[in-house]
């Protein structure tokens, strides 16, 4: 399976979709791009991606066939060939996911009105309802064709059905590896005293009660906060047998080592929590999607006696498995760039195009277990931060071979000391002297 046509940029010189001046376009790979050229650009980072609308198909191109292979290339359906049932699906999707789009005519009228008042007219008509429906239909056709084949996993329409793969990466991930590689002490099971007599054939921290329910980062690039928080919750549970939901918003607002919704790393979050002395509970500091001023109350902090973090190195399968079993869930770096990954529904994900190249690792997730499927072979189990409706209840099983998607490349876990002593009680107010 190859990537969706819009998922690989042809040049790394275009402006970021998140930047305010992201207006330059460049050609994308598509189904007709020569194989040699596709190979030349495969694996490049999507950092400086063009505006997401540039990858959307043209709604007016009624001559384009609606048929498509399961290569992941987004098809462009004929404008006059949309059935009522598909239109109904599109309207239901928008209702379910709270999407509202203007038509192209409405956007043009808005631009004309702004121009008549001497205002900026750079309204992006490629975000029209027609174009977004076209993306939805394109994904739908690719998924249906893919699922007809005998594969180890299935795909399904989800909250990303009207977004290009590039937009998903831009808005729903957030791992920044460049210049931020983990610097924790290396964990090597051969020298750490954690050598297991026999590594279990299967293991899952969910079965031990160490994890809260999967959460949803939504349209904020703060996967780093969710992976770090989940790892800390689990580590605290292993130490105290208390599962305390902690606040990602506390990190988003107050962590000065990461870049809020513009990205970061779980290990920098560990460093900040150690410096801060703990993290607020989510009931006191709930997630709001957008960053705000730091509003933490240190008297409410859940005290975490952080001693730092360790990096699982060497990044061998056996070493990662041992660290997972003996230390707890691991925050890992994963490649989320392919449409097949974003559309994952169930089964053992095995798309060979999911590269482990360092510049493709754009998403932080939590490695919670591993196992061996009788039909599809060994796998890792990872918890995502895209909500419970994504994948297998918010999780994905990734084939445990050839470091698919980079699961074992950067694995870290927090190191906690003994439970801190309770703070001393405030001194009682002295009684006033007798009159």
Automatic annotation (TrEMBL):
CDD domains xrefs: Peptidase_C1A (cd02248)
Biased segments, Low complexity type: 1-25
Protease among keywords: yes
Ranges for region Disordered: 1-39
Domain Cathepsin propeptide inhibitor: 90-168
Domain Peptidase C1A papain C-terminal: 199-415
Recorded GO MF terms: cysteine-type peptidase activity
Parts of the chain that traverse the membrane: none
InterPro entries per the UniProt record, alphabetical: Papain-like_cys_pep_sf, Pept_cys_AS, Pept_his_AS, Peptidase_C1A, Peptidase_C1A_C, Peptidase_C1A_papain-like, Prot_inhib_I29
Keywords tagged on the record: Disulfide bond, Hydrolase, Protease, Thiol protease, Zymogen
A single GO BP: proteolysis
Keyword Hydrolase listed: yes
Protein family membership: Belongs to the peptidase C1 family.
Name used for this protein in its record: Crustapain-like
